[in-house]
Amino acid sequence: MHLFVITFSGGAKLIGATRMSRWIGHWGKLCSLLLISIMLILIGFIIFKGLPTLGLKLFFGDTDPLAAMMGQKPVWEGIWPACVGTLTVVLCAVSLAALPGIASGIWLASAAEKRAQKVFSLAVDILAGIPSILMGLFGFSLILVLRASFFPQANVSLLLAAFCLALLILPYIACATQNALSSLPKQLTVTGAALGMTQWQATYRLLLPQASPGIMSGLMLAIGRAAEDTAVIMLTGAVANAGLPGGLLQRFEALPFTIFYLSAQYQSQQELDMAFGAALVLLILTSIIFTLLAALLRRRNCNIFGSAKSLIKETMC
Amino acid sequence: MILVVISGLMLFAVFCFLIWFSLPVFLTETSLVFSLQWQPEQGHFGILAMVFGTLSLALISTSAAFVIALGLNSFCLLSRRRWLVVILRSLLKFMAAVPTVVYGLAALFLLLPLLRNGLQLGSGYSLFAAICMVILLILPVICVMLDNITTPLWQQYALGAQALGFSPEQTYMRVILPHCKVNICGAALLGFNRAIGDTMLPLMLAGNATQLPSGVFDAMRSLTAHIALVIATDQGSEVYNSLFAAGMILLMSSACICLLSRSLVGRN
Amino acid sequence: MMWKTCSVRLMAIFTLLISSPLIADELSAFDKMSGQLNIAGGTAHIPVMKKAARNIMGHNPNIRITIAGGGSGVGVQQVANGLVDIGNTGRALKNKEMNLGLNSFAFAIDGVAVIIHPENPVNDLSQQQIIAIYQGKITNWQEVGGHDRQIHLFSRDEASGTRSVFSKKLLKGAPLAGNANIVPSNGAMKTAVSQDVAAIGYSSVGYIDEMVKAPTYNQIKPSQEACASGEYPVVRRLYMNTKGAPNGLTQAFIDYIYSKQGAQLIQASGYIALDAKP
Predict the structure, then answer these.
(1) Is residue C191 part of a domain?
(2) Which of A178, B3, B255, C18 could form a disulfide with A103 if both were Cys (CB 3.0 to 4.6 A apart)?
């Protein structure tokens, strides 16, 4: 086959191209092999170092686990407060970002005002690309301004960190919603209109349920992003020692920040072990989210086909 | 509708805020900020070395990641071992979920000792270490985008190209790649943006020295790490103000990249 | 050596035993209190603050004490803005900062000393040598009596009080070489130096233990005693700063640091306790 091509087109250029083409095959194999082995080494290293530390002591230190969980006794030398802090801040951020994000997504997908949409989607795109530390910087200066003007009580806190994280993940949710809605078959809207639904009814009763797996996967992605981000919370309220989060307006501990803090300045082998333990816990957390996401995506594919078929059946009847 | 307006207003607020804070810095102290020297004790507050550090980090890691991503992408399309491809694809998606601090931690105790003791390359804290990890960070971004673009194209053209007598490798190099040149550039830009914006990896691995790196094994400081370090200083001082200049440069560059990639994709 | 550590441990146990009846007394000030106390700033202070917080929160769980590092700059900035109740600094307040209405409480004396890896054979560094090293004029350990290795410089971030003391009192204002790696805290400095045979850094004397080695400075060993007597010149005070006069929980915490038990915590962290200002 090669011979055929060469004799057919002739010329040295194609011989070079053939060589180049063969080269890309080998290059691909090399890259894949390298990548897989590097990732195996990295993840294996974290598991190797973190696994032996997993246990009650890692989470609660010397405190009695039950008392610590109920928040009766402060935990020292344990990552339990950090776990709770991370979960709280992520939950807050997602609940803050979910509604505006989905709403913007719906608006972007509906073809109403072209110009405003263009500007808005550009803004969403830019926001999605903004480095996360700038979000932290924004939150920090926001608090300083608030203190100087309206709310002298404002302080860096869990709420602020959640707010900044919400800004960070809002574009992800908006984009996912938009994509999920616009990938639905056009007939759905038409059918809705034919049945005498208002646009709002059609969106709420028809489109959203159909697009929900897509939106859910967007939310999952957003949760993963919020759980791993360190730069934002570093500037907006995460501290090294705070105990369990006491309220929305107080400082908190978080897993990623704990890992960063301990890895840079561990004073004993035990603290270093804690860093690896915390890293493993965070890794497990994010991979659970990832697995859920993958499962959702798989279900979505079936769902769309299934529901589309049933819908066609319905309309035919 | 109200929610949309709210989120729009919030986006607007973020932009205005950063610009408003950094404007005075640009208006009054341009000569101070735009110089190469950073010696706060001696009154030099130049952040150009950090700008250069960020650029070299992002450029080198993006181009390396790009070449690797092309290889991976070709492997995903061409390889006959489909199970390996499935593993590779899910690994890439999984990599997108790995927290950056975990990469940083692993590199701190695997890569740095290797550079320091094994290869005798300085203290180990270096541009090189940061580049290695940033490549891992942005690989999934570029790869997943490339995969999304090239897979439909491959299904469309593979048979026809084979009928014309192309080998699969030739199809990839001569048909698929030229066809989606623009989109590939878009993917690379996205990766570039991510590389510029990452904070934790340069902060943990690059040493944060305020010099122009003269080689990849020198320590350097990125703009993002500069912000993370300098936010600790007292407000109103020149050191503190340089923070907003750095923030502004980051914001501008990421906005520009975003516009560029949009116009690229839009033209297609 | 064994004997020494053993006896130190024994002494520690004894002091604990002796002081345990006292603990109840000095902590009883916190009995009726509740609420949150935020502390941020100097990283040299963290061991003391952490131990105190542990005792207080163990005594009365209704009190929450949060501790953040960040450096002296953070301490001043956040306490002046009212973001924290106590902002720690490892240096005296500058004139500009005095005008913000801050009250300073010096509670300990600390030295700043050069640290190197324990396996590094260099035992003494003069001031000239240190200045030349940090200016980038001496780049090999051989030139100061060590092995043939390139010197890896480590320095602190711009917000650090340790850095400003080191720069002023030891380097005498000489500019720092640009290739110095920057670490964000005393703890991180110690960790970084303990991992690198060719490293040189500087940290608070309280942080020096078997993980790193402090070479003598102009033939003087940087120890607690030498700092207290003034024999070792690169010393500073550690301050707690409050905005306006402290009250309530903040006052109680400061009193606790100045108490006998507080002094023990300061001692155990490697510093020399100071008495309260009359």
Answers:
(1) yes
(2) B3
